[in-house]
Amino acid sequence: MDKKKVVTPLVCHGHSRPVVDVFYSAITPDGFFLISASKDSTPMLRNGETGDWIGTFQGHKGAVWSCCLDKHALRAASASADFSAKIWDALTGDELHSFEHKHIVRSCAFSEDTHLLLTGGMEKVLRIYDLNRPDASPREIEKSPGSVRTIAWLHSDQTILSSCTDMGGVRLWDVRTGTIVRTLETKSSVTSAEVSQDGRYITTADGSSVKFWDANHFGLVKSYNMPCVMESASLEPKHGNKFIAGGEDMWIRAFDFHTGEEVGCNKGHHGPVHCVRFSPGGESYASGSEDGTIRIWQSNNTEQETCGANVAADVTHQIEKVHITDEDKTDQKVAVANN
């Protein structure tokens, strides 16, 4: 029997509580970046390729449920259980603005043109903030049928998709009218919704299935039953020929997009996997877990692994070994994780 190749992920420590969201920036002149949200209240920014820690955004007083970067990776946003969403300067770590809500904020997303911030949460209200006028009152869309779990922009910021924590389905909203124009039906609550990089597909994870929807005509393209309850799924952005999913069994599984056949399985986390995302070039992907770590896996090795043979080893990136430039040192507002 051929010896199976053991895949060694980059293991990113620093969070003291579960990691519940990870988000990759687009590729910028300085590379690409990875931001993570955790129940420890401190979003963290890392080099997306190496996993090296860059900085920690300090200011929230409750669990951070969602985080994102704008397409230039110049600003970060975070949504928290402290009833606020915050905008940060991703270069200095400064808090630029805090948008107060009346309940827990579960999700946030920058518009494609970077001028708007969308939030949603337990209030059952979608809010659109004009970042050019951050002190102005947001536009509110108040007809969400349930507490908002996930949100995303599509169709060049003309459509919003959202899912709810307490019911199935993905709602598609016309931004101009603020009304639901279509519902993508699922039996279970959708815990992850991703618009593909080319804008063709919406990838959803709902319980024990992963589905792919046509992002323009909204038909169901593919639906695959999963071996366990999956919390998150992501489609490979460059070729679109495979996808990953992670969930309660602590493994990150890779599947063939066209057939649904499992083509790889990575072990290493010590708790359920809450979030998975491909890097913008598809060469790697990140996973965040209940165990408080982020793991970055090389995508090109996936087809050589099997669940029965792969035992992932740790390559720990200790925060104290991260190189910080002199420019970074001059800004005292970039918080250093005290672990």
Automatic annotation (TrEMBL):
UniProt WD repeat ranges: 57-98, 98-139, 266-307
Top-level taxon of origin: Eukaryota
InterPro entries: WD40/YVTN_repeat-like_dom_sf, WD40_repeat_dom_sf, WD40_rpt
A single GO BP: protein-RNA complex assembly
SMART domains: WD40
Keywords per UniProt: mRNA processing, mRNA splicing, Repeat, WD repeat
Protein family per UniProt: Belongs to the WD repeat STRAP family.
Record's protein name: Serine-threonine kinase receptor-associated protein
Organism annotation: Castilleja foliolosa
Lineage, highest ranks first: Eukaryota, Viridiplantae, Streptophyta, Embryophyta, Tracheophyta
